[in-house]
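Researcher: Structure for this, please.
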Amino acid sequence: MDIRALKQQSPALYADLLLQGINAERQRVTAILNAAREYGAVEEAIIAVEGGLVLDNQTHDLLIAIGDANDVFQSALEREEANGYTNSQALGRPRVEEANRRYQKAVKRLEETIASRRSLT
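Model: Predicted structure, token format:
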């Protein structure tokens, strides 16, 4: 039986299954976004949601790592700006560059996780 046949032959069951799917997806997205808000990684959580990830231990750890790396990057940038560097000058400073590389590496791990999980399906 395909979806059309189910919808025609049992509209109540079809509606119930559809609602269950909607609720499951809402829970998946909400769990990832709530964790991301806590760690300051909302933009990256959108990548995780779009990539179909669920909030398991690995995704949770990735969001923590991204949030931490972003915090370090922002702090390094602010410290250099407080020392009189413009934003663009600060981006070239060694501390800021290293913090940015750490952040980019964390985001890349998220993207690789999405790619590897997609290859399993």
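Researcher: Any notable elements?
Model: The radius of gyration is 20 Å. The first helix runs from residue 3 to 9.
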